[in-house]
Amino acid sequence: MTAFLSVDAKSVEPESGAPAPDRLISGDPKFRTWNVEERDGGLYAGIWESTPGKWRIVYDEWEFCHILSGVSVIAEEGAEARTVKAGDSFVLRPGFKGSWEVLETTRKQYVIKL
What we know:
Blueprint: E1 15-17, E2 24-27, E3 31-39, E4 43-50, E5 53-58, E6 62-76, E7 82-85, E8 89-92, E9 97-113
Antiparallel strand pairs: 1-3, 2-5, 3-4, 4-9, 5-9, 6-7, 6-8, 6-9
Protein name: Cupin domain-containing protein
């Protein structure tokens, strides 16, 4: 077994999802998630994609994101909204509360630590 793992959507079947109904603000966003790594202790890595829509987000986890394609607006309560697009990288820390709005279908690479 190799210790090198490529983060590639072709390597796993995607899981389908959507925001919880009580978090949905607008639209009908649909998610696809290619979770290529899952380790004991709550570490996850993979690719996530969403179609347009807006929903509330609350983070208990730490997440690194790198946007591969699309355009989204991430708004933290009490702070200025930020538009993210292909090439942008950022971290959402535990305690983040706000909204995620997908303007153009967005795909990101992620690493999550619970």
